[in-house]
Amino acid sequence: xxxxxxxxxxxxxxxxxxxxxxxxxxxxxxxxxxxxxxxxxxxxxxxxxxxxxxxxxxxxxxxxxxxxxxxxxxxxxxxxxxxxxxxxxxxxxxxxxxxxxxxxxxxxxxxxxxxxxxxxxxxxxxxxxxxxxxxxxxxxxxxxxxxxxxxxxxxxxxxxxxxxxxxxxxxxxxxxxxxxxxxxxxxxxxxxxxxxxxxxxxxxxxxxxxxxxxxxxxxxxxxxxxxxxxxxxxxxxxxxxxxxxxxxxxxxxxxxxxxxxxxxxxxxxxxxxxxxxxxxxxxxxxxxxxxxxxxxxxxxxxxxxxxxxxxxxxxxxxxxxxxxxxxxxxxxxxxxxxxxxxxxxxxxxxxxxxxxxxxxxx
Length: 362
Prior knowledge:
Blueprint: E1 3-4, H1 8-13, E2 17-21, E3 24-29, H2 33-42, E4 45-48, E5 53-58, H3 62-69, E6 82-88, E7 94-104, E8 107-112, H4 117-126, E9 134-137, E10 142-148, H5 152-158, E11 172-176, E12 180-184, E13 193-199, H6 200-213, E14 217-219, H7 221-230, H8 265-274, E15 278-285, E16 296-298, E17 304-314, E18 319-327, E19 336-341, E20 344-351
Parallel strand pairs: 1-3, 4-14
Antiparallel strand pairs: 2-3, 4-10, 5-8, 5-9, 6-7, 7-8, 10-13, 11-12, 12-13, 15-18, 15-20, 16-17, 16-19, 17-18, 19-20
Helix pairs in contact: 2-7
């Protein structure tokens, strides 16, 4: 049975189209995806992301343990720094992609994908042997909202009274109000924005203030996907999976092979040295037809050489584009490829995976 977030009743009251996602019933859209997408690109939108999972790692060996399970390098990180990276299987396949927040000395806050919570926590526990740590699964405690868009900073400061101006991109701080609130300058939209974690009661109050202010449009998972896709951000299950390594997905920069060790390091080093059979690419179609997940990618002889992972008619640049996993020999920029959409074949070209420029506040 699907779970509900603490904001479920708010979504229903606003008339959201609700649908299962990652084991939860989530809002897909309130008005329509285009309106919500443009609100985030031009003004400000708020997302319920309470379905995400949170795990706190503390104890004497917390840093050593995080270094062991995580591809990025958190050694000696300043408090408040956030890292993006992956947890890998020994063969280099991806368990999940996640954010790691350095909260204090040997104190890390891990944010994982909703659909992977149970699998990830089991995997973390399985690899905790020999480490003096406390692994606290906190997903049931935390609610989370993401306030995103060029006006996000002003909205968070003025509507929620949460000082956030001084936060740099990919940093976080704890605000002690009636409880500990975590505020980070992060997001999944390619725009400036903040992710805010707190108790269910706090998150409901914050949501209500944002909606009542009229300065922040409620946004569903539909536009969350179109926004992240346009700026080339991966979605677990599409661009990363147990079968898709970070090297295949073009995310090697988040895998620090100069670290002494991490699970999957040898497999990634081998892939970097000897190449991979498939790579993730961007493809732009000459036509307005929309390539969807699972559609076949064809070469000029009509042979299948890959498949689409995510595709849309891009709202911000008015082009039909997709990300696709293709045989490596077809991954070079400007390679002509085609997408089979139902009974027709539409020609396209390999382009960069980022279809729209990010506007983070660095």
